[in-house]
Every structure is written in structure tokens, then in C-alpha cells.
Amino acid sequence: MSPAEPLHCTIDIEASGFGRQSYPIEVGWALADGRTGCVLVRPPAHWTHWDESAERVHGITRETLRQHGRDPIDVALRLNAELGGQTVYSDAWGHDFAWISRLFDEAELPRHFKLEPAASLFGETLLGQLDEVHTAAFTELAVARHRASNDARALQRALQALEQRPGRRMR
Known about the structure:
The chain is an alpha/beta fold. It has a single domain (9-164), classed as Ribonuclease H-like superfamily/Ribonuclease H (Nucleotidyltransferase, domain 5, 2-Layer Sandwich), CATH 3.30.420.10. Helices cover 43% and strands 16% of the residues. The chain is built from seven helices and five strands. It has helices at 52-58, 62-68, 72-83, 93-107, 124-127, 130-141, 148-164, and strands at 9-15, 24-30, 36-40, 87-90, 114-117. It has a five-stranded mixed sheet. Helix 3 crosses helix 4 (93-107). The longest helix is centred in the C-terminal third of the chain and has 17 residues, at 148-164.
């Protein structure tokens, strides 16, 4: 892949936990030009599920969300402005799709970008290497803090590295 070739647009979502009652609390993205963005989501009063073990992983407290989070409609508008018209790749598509859907349903807005699994880019041979390359990307980027934008940037770097490998088979 030449340096001038655009990168894949990626997304990562931190959530209140897992399962049907969980919801997004932070959304981070990395754009095709390499710029990143991140926004905290202030949960509406009826979003009550909270998993302490998830908090230990992402390090975001309910108080942080109350103080610094944005309303779901503001987050949805920002995501549409930043990602509109693009295909955005996720390494946890099953969870991320549900959380993005919950966010946009709450905001009562249509989503203007397509969300796809990162795995859809590669044949089986390279797909089996994604975890290893993704872990290496975190080290290469010297990511010190677990945040959604860092995770999106590391995924973007991992996808780029896989595309540079000999014998790649993009779908």
C-alpha cells in the first residue's frame, strides 16, 4: 500500500457492559486521512445498566459521563458529520453495531455511514493474523490509555499492516 493510498475508516465503542441492556459510553474513530476523534456519551436516565468489570477495563466512570458526556443526539449528529457517506470498519462488529443502533435509535436519527466488520476485508489466511497484528499496532503506537479513539487508530494501523503483507487477498 503506498503512503498516498487512503486508510480504512475505523470505529471503536466503549460500553456500559455487555448484553441487551448495555449502551455506548464512548465512541472513537479514525478517518481515512488519519485524523481521529472521540466523544463521551451522557446516558439518558433510562439507560441504567452498569457493569463494574467493564468500567475497570475502559476506566470511564458514571460521574465522568455526567460531567463530560454529550447527549446521544449530539453524538449521533457528530458521527454523521464525521463519518457520513463512508464505510466504517469495526473489529467487534456484533457489539458495535448494536451499540451504534441504540445510540441512533435514542437520537431518533438515521445513520449516514455504513458499519462493516473489519474481518470482511480479508480472506481467511490474513484474517487469522488480525489479532496478532492488532496487538502489535498498540505497541507500535505506544498507546498508554485505553480509549476508543486509540483503539480505532490501532485497528486502522493493523488493517494497513495486513494489506501490506504478501499474498493478501482483499475481498
